Amino acid sequence: MLDDKLDTAGTDLELEVGGGEPELELRHLVSVSSTFANLVNEVAERYTGTSKPVRWLVDVQPGCVRLPLRARPAHDSVRPSAVREIPSVIADGIAQLEREPVRPEFFNDKALEQVRALANAGVPLAVRNGGERVNFSAQSAANVEKVLGKVHESYGTVEGGLEELTIHGSKEFGIWQPHGKVRCLFGRYVTLEDVLQGVGKRVAARGTIRHRPRVGAISVEVESLRILDADDVSAESVLGLCRGSEVADW
Fold first, then answer.
1. Closest Cα to residue 132, out of 71, 91, 98, 102?
2. Span 139-164, mean pLDDT?
3. Residues 209, 156 contacting (CB under 8 angstroms)
4. pLDDT of 111
């Protein structure tokens, strides 16, 4: 078993909720737990280059509201040494964002947005990795804002491999570019049937693009969708490694 190759030292990450208050609203606990889970999963995927590489196990302890997490490999392709390192990468990145407006390594935009959400959760939060306690504070949120930069809008086209179609909650699909996935929202002008024809192919989505400086497109309100070729997207494109392109009409 992969778990047998790991000792417990260095694999723990603990989220402290409530700042010592005797009571905590259930909605706060549920909200921050979900956001923190998204954060640790996002950084773990960036660190290993593998989808869903880690199972985060919660140690239940009486007497306080804490979430002690133990990282375990989710499948055979994940190196045990990487699993040992991921909690430190996460904790060190959160601490760096508390100190300065600099993007931590392996923290993409989605991870930064989750740090900001935790800092603005309305309840005291802290994380530790067996050592010093690091708070999610207003300073963390301000530094994340500086790192992300202001969101701009323009009208144009985003090209790339069409992946990750979902109709749960909102209707959206993903177009992969070198910096990651661009969320493409559809339904008002483009139908589900239109999108299904482009799944697994290289497409051009045209509409209002939201983008950040030094990052590129982050989302598109799709008004038209065009298939650029009839061939399936390569395996590299599926992993988001293909060269996409963004053309904005100013």
1. 91
2. 92
3. yes
4. 92
The β-bridge relationship of strands 12-17 and 54-58 is unpaired
pLDDT on residue 99: 96
Q: Which residues contact 23 (CB under 8 A, 6 or more apart)?
A: none
**Average of pLDDT values for 116-132?**
88
**In the chain, where are the structural domains located?**
2-148, 152-249
The residue assigned the tokens 């409530």 is 18
For 48-73, b/e burial (b = at least 16 CB within 10 A) is bebeebbbbeeeeeeeebbbebbbbb
**CATH class of the domain at 152-249:** mainly beta
The continuous run of DSSP H or E covering 197 comes out as: helix 192-198
Residue 134: is its pLDDT beyond 70? Answer: yes
Are 194 and 205 in contact by the 8 Å Cβ rule? The answer is no
> Which pair of tokens denotes residue 97?
């964002």
How much is the average pLDDT of 95-103? Answer: 96
Read off the pLDDT of residues 179-236 as tens digits, 9 standing for 90 and up.
Answer: 778 999 999 999 999 999 999 999 999 999 998 877 788 899 999 999 996 554 444 4
The 3-class secondary structure across 145-181, one letter per residue, is HHHHCCCEEEEEEEEEEEEEEECCCCCEEEEEECCEE
- Nearest partner of 15 among 58, 54, 75, judged by Cα: 58
**Encoded tokens for 160:** 């790339």
Closest CA to 93 of 81, 110, 107: 107
